[in-house]
Amino acid sequence: MKPVTRNRTIFAAFDLCLVAACSLFTACIHDGISLKSRNTSYLFAFLLFPVLWVFLSILTRKFRIGERSSQMDVLISVLFSNFVILSITTIVMILFRLTFFSRFILFGTVSAITLIELMIGIVYVSLRRSVFIRDWIGLDIPEQQRLEIAPPPLPETMSVPKNVSLLRDLITEESGTETFTWISSQLDLTDPRNLIVSTDSRFNIINQPAGFLQAIVNLHRINDFRRINKFFEAVNARLPSGGIFIGCADTNELRKERILGKYPPVINFMVYTIDFILHRIFPKVIMTRKLYFLVTRGKKRVISRAETLGRLYSCGFEVVMEQHSRGLLYWKACKIRTPYFDTDPTYGLFIRLHRIGLNGKEFSVYKLRTMHAYAEYLQGYVYDHNLLDKGGKFRDDFRVTTMGKVFRKLWIDELPMLLNVMKGDMKIVGIRPLSKHYFNLYSEDLRKKRIRVKPGLIPPFYAQFPTPSTIEEVQQNELEYLEAYDKRPFRTDLAYFFRAFRNIVFRCARSR
After folding, report:
1. What are the DSSP calls for 182-248, one per residue?
2. Is 367 part of a structural domain of the chain?
């Protein structure tokens, strides 16, 4: 057994005994009962509660307190984990109506365990730096680190070729043989201008000489980066135009597949749900975001494929290849420009999207989020890889979330656009407001006609059934509407409104 795994197992076993003892102790204080007179109503306290406690402690990674670097890390880790356990246990008691189980026993047990864990954890971290303690817990400390031997001098020139055999062993150890084979097929590993690192600190990138590197490969997954865009921007600054950036991420799609395949049915969905709430929802909700990053330092959060690629595009890269290896998504991207440095990305539930309006002026469209964060930067990428669906939207668009598909089916995502109607930026019936990328795909003649009228909440293609499925059909449909609108504005909008209403209500035409 590895030293790290052994230490976590020891902590778990100790915590199991501790929670059982504290449960019994608080029960005795509460009722003054003895072991002989204890009745079966406390079965949850003495059997189920310790098991539930350890299970949730594993999910919240509390048993890694021995790997924390400071007493503050231990304090935050224990308090956060025990708060989550207390909340979930309380919810279980309410749902299953465990009225026989005393709240005094629950809160007393949690308080006692928390106090003891904090004392032991802080003392442990304080002592773990000593050589005796480090040997006892099994930390693998090379002898040269103990003696503080100075590292070898740097080469006199930056053009010294690399040791391919050593590099192959290091990459294989870090990321596997499959990853090494793929990276070596994309880059010349012997070229000293190709930097290969495994780091979550942008300092190691900024510290590289400017104007020298041609490619940067980072084997550390971006899920551990506190500020992902800042790291991408640092890579962009150290690469020339056309420079290559290779990295990896543990996407939520791959993570879900891995969790559901690891655990038996029912349990796997319970584990996935808890993991999704902790590492997917908490980092994004305003009320929990700061607490999450305070506790985790941004480590191991869940990120979608769409957000990963979108962040790359927003930071000046173009994705030219994707590769799956050892449960991670690897990408090969090319620098095409400087980053956008977007200080206000669409990251919440309510979003504002830049669209082309009357007289060609851009305005903000209000919508409910149906896509992953940074998905708006991927319109060109999706257009190159996906076909158009009915209504002119992209088919099999991986940027759309599961909840987003439901919102679109029920038209919920469009409701905030009523604010644009009230502000006068849009009208009820009219051409769809388009992004700059999508607008430029239209013919020049249609673009000129489009900007002469306000966009609308209900697009004209819903007045046609079945709805158009290609961009050419969508353009023809809008052209017919615009020509009719030029002649009779009010009658045209009224006619299109009732035709669209009939198709939506009686023919089940839906947004996609």
Report:
1. HHHHHS-TT-TTEEEE--S-THHHHTSPTTT-SEEEE-S-GGG-SSHHHHHHHHHHHS-TT-EEEEE
2. yes
Distance CA 96, CA 92 (A): 6
Q: 392-438, pLDDT tens digit by residue?
A: 556 667 888 888 888 887 778 888 899 999 999 999 999 989 988 88
The structure tokens listed for 319 are: 């994705």
CA angle at residue 393 from 388 to 399, to 5 degrees?
100
Total Cβ atoms within 10 A of residue 353: 15
Segment 283-307 shows an average pLDDT of 81
The owner of tokens 């969508």 is: 474
Contact status, residue 56 vs residue 88, Cβ threshold 8 Å: yes
DSSP state of 432: P
- Residue pair 315/337 in contact (Cβ under 8 Å)? The answer is no
Same domain (yes/no): 131, 245: no
Q: Name residue 387's amino acid.
A: L
Cis peptide bond N-terminal to 466, omega within 30: yes
Length of the chain: 512
- 341 located within any domain: no
Closest by CA to 356, choosing from 422, 443, 417, 425, is 425
pTM of the model: 0.62
pLDDT at 156 over 60: no
Which range of residues forms the domain containing residue 371? 350-505
Distances (CA, A) of 66 to 136, 293, 337: 12, 20, 44
Q: How buried is residue 1: exposed, middle or buried, by Cβ count under 10 Å (0-12/13-18/19+)?
A: exposed
Alpha helix ranges (H) inside 329-435: 379-385, 402-410, 418-423
Q: Is 129 inside any structural domain? A: yes
**Which residues are registered as beta bridge partners of 351?**
367
Q: Which two tokens stand for residue 254?
A: 């791959």
Q: Are residues 444 and 358 in the same domain?
A: yes
Task: Say which residue the tokens 């596997």 belong to.
Answer: 176
User: Contact at 8 Å (CB) between 467 and 461?
Assistant: yes
What is the C-alpha radius of gyration for the chain, rounded to an integer number of angstroms? 29
91: CB partners within 8 A, 6+ apart? none
Residue 196 lies in a domain: yes
What does the pLDDT read at residue 128?
Answer: 57
Helices within 328-470 (DSSP H only): 379-385, 402-410, 418-423, 436-439, 444-450
> β-strand 362-368 against 350-356: which pairing, if any?
antiparallel
